[in-house]
Amino acid sequence: MLGKTYLTKQASLLLEFAKTTSDSDLSAKLISKAADLKSQADPLPDKDQGPKAPDVTLDDGPDRPSGS
């Protein structure tokens, strides 16, 4: 699933492109797609819920004294 941050950024980029084009049909399509992305992003939580990294433990390497 795509996160809220990603969807919001994509919608923002589409709106920027819509402002720069002189083709009114293309602009309308970009704005419509941006609205679709925004409606997908709205119900999502503010923080993206990506997979969490596993806990990392440091091994006793040659430069670290042993804990035993």
Topology of helices and strands:
Blueprint lengths: L3 H17 L3 H18 L27
Helix pairs in contact: 1-2
Molecular structure report:
With 68 residues, this protein is mainly alpha-helical. It has helices at 4-20, 24-41.
Identify low-pLDDT runs.
none
Q: Roughly what percent helix?
A: 40-55%
Basic shape: elongated
Largest sheet: none
Number of helices: 2
Mean pLDDT score, rounded? Answer: 80
Give the class from helix and strand content and strand pairing. Answer: mainly alpha
Q: Please give the number of β-strands.
A: 0
Beta-strand content: under 5%
State Rg: 22 Å
User: Helix-strand pattern, N to C?
Assistant: HH
Amino- and carboxy-terminal Cα gap: 45 Å
Please outline what is shown here.
The protein is mainly alpha-helical and 68 residues long. It has two helices and no strands.
Index terms:
single chain; 68 residues; mainly alpha; elongated; 2 helices
